[in-house]
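Input:
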Amino acid sequence: MIPNTNYNQLKDSYLFSEIAKRVAEYSNLNPEKEIIKMGIGDVTLPLCNAVVEAMKHAAEDLGKAETFHGYGPEQGYDFLREKIKDYYAENNVELDLNEIFISDGAKSDLGNILDILGKDNTVLIPDPVYPVYVDTNIMDGRNIIYADANESNGFLPMPDYSIKADIIYICSPNNPTGAVYNKEQLQKWVDYAISNNSLILFDSAYEAFVADKSLPRSIFQIEDAKKCAIEFCSLSKTAGFTGVRCGYTVVPNGLVFSDMKLNKLWLRRQTTKFNGVSYIVQKGAEAVFSEEGRRQIAENIMYYRENANIITNTLSEIGIKFYGGINSPYIWLKCPDNMGSWEFFDKLLYSAGVIGTPGAGFGKNGDKYFRLTAFSSRENTQKAMLKLKNLID
Amino acid sequence: MIPNTNYNQLKDSYLFSEIAKRVAEYSNLNPEKEIIKMGIGDVTLPLCNAVVEAMKHAAEDLGKAETFHGYGPEQGYDFLREKIKDYYAENNVELDLNEIFISDGAKSDLGNILDILGKDNTVLIPDPVYPVYVDTNIMDGRNIIYADANESNGFLPMPDYSIKADIIYICSPNNPTGAVYNKEQLQKWVDYAISNNSLILFDSAYEAFVADKSLPRSIFQIEDAKKCAIEFCSLSKTAGFTGVRCGYTVVPNGLVFSDMKLNKLWLRRQTTKFNGVSYIVQKGAEAVFSEEGRRQIAENIMYYRENANIITNTLSEIGIKFYGGINSPYIWLKCPDNMGSWEFFDKLLYSAGVIGTPGAGFGKNGDKYFRLTAFSSRENTQKAMLKLKNLID
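Output:
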């Protein structure tokens, strides 16, 4: 038996282990000093009450013969798909129910979607970016090319017609840069994809943080996107579902490549290799979209937005250049004094006890940048920003 | 963009849609007649109380800041892996914690495991069998050969050294035949795998139904299996988790092919393409292994076993030959009067109002056989067997 030797091409992911190592060293040297984590991508607020009650109720359902649910549909229960359909309709996106697939999170579907795509496609991935796009394609042996995201394009690379890409990753609002494409910019990507017969994989995991109503929350707000794009979304950041695990993927019926309908391929993939998301989790997800749930999660999003405000206000005040933080939970700052991202990491840790994420971990273009997140507590966010101010001023 | 064209080689799965079509026709012609479903692979008893209470408690945990859990380890929480380690130890199988991966069900991992295996391997699959093994390999374009399971080998095919297989599927207790390998037989498969440098994918989803203590419940009860086998297990049938979604996969550290450690590859696959099973579900699964949970699920298994007894006693009484039903929830009967499996399906439906699953749906060797399951209610099982008796006598 020969294993998948493409795995030999994967680089070990040192980012979070290297952060942990450096923090441990600091703690050993400074056991009495407080450390404030401003680099985490996980949420900190608990689930809202509507979701908790719905899941408790669902667990009770499964304990009674009259209301027991066994195998559910692999693509998700209609009670949840209907809510998502309505959620899209709020932005004037009309979906058929069969275009919506419930997942256990965007990460699973972003990886698994590659099952239905050929290995000989060339993949275009922005740099810097969420490392999963790169690694999942290396595992399949696909040719990867990069689109540079940098200050000159506001970390929003635009299509280059001299380059032929078959599969294009777009993450907006972006992880890690927090940059958000506007409709005109996304329209250019859709136009490029259609003229090149390419497929866009659109990661909208942070759409709930888009406050500016003129910015698109879904690629399907762009004309013709249903002919060239799959969208991946998640309740992880929207509703604090990082430990609950639920997301959704939209595969339009209009996606036809080499006479093969991608919606049909994905349905076959999911019915063959997946057994659906837990009934309890889907009931919790349904509650996210209830009136009460919507109100409660809006409060949580507001809390994180205010954290982002505190961070961006501080950075503005002390003259550190940054991107994101307005329609995004991520703040991407330019390291002061032309420091490298690991150098700034050490400085922030040793001089202020604050931990962030070095941009180098997201690609070569991240080398002089640093990611902070809005997911800490209010108290820690305020404290960290005070320390940063004292450090820089 | 070129899709994965291997999907063009998949045959449409007509089995359950064809059953549904024939049942609908019957119902239209006989609207007043009762139909008893004896073909379902889903469980019918509700979750036991220990599991329901654990999941309610876990949902409450997530609703409070002090006990909130966000992203968990992709490979599962140690609180659950420890329980599974102890469960294996009861059968004298010693596992390292890092060999145990929590999954959202055996179906997911049986499909996803192929990510870490090369495409050029030849795959040996028993016929008849659970259709997922075949389809997932067609999706990857692997060469598939079949091991005939028939009356002459008691539906337990043994290795043939003249055939070189790189990946070998074994499901014991078997779906659909209910046949169970003994230790000597499994040892022969392990010996074959080691001498051929093959990997065994062992599906033990029905291990909880093994009553005979001399029969293996895990392939790791066989010497040297840790050098050649991965095991997939599920709480679906053990604890009625078909709608809750939790299983586990054991990838021993001793599996090394082409200098690549499969455990490390699988860990990388899961950390890249998966975000772990819901905290709530894992808390429910932990309760399955508590003293109270074990007692409660044992009662459910006994209930299904008694259903299987009622079925096998009836078949013996009326002289219909069968396999399984003793250490398995599946009863695989030979259609009377040399009938084909669809012919018998129609006869049973039209003369008795009973639905089962035609063996032809599981492969060519299933053509003259028929699957009944022990998962119906007691009342329906008794009623269906009475009708079968009247039909045959």
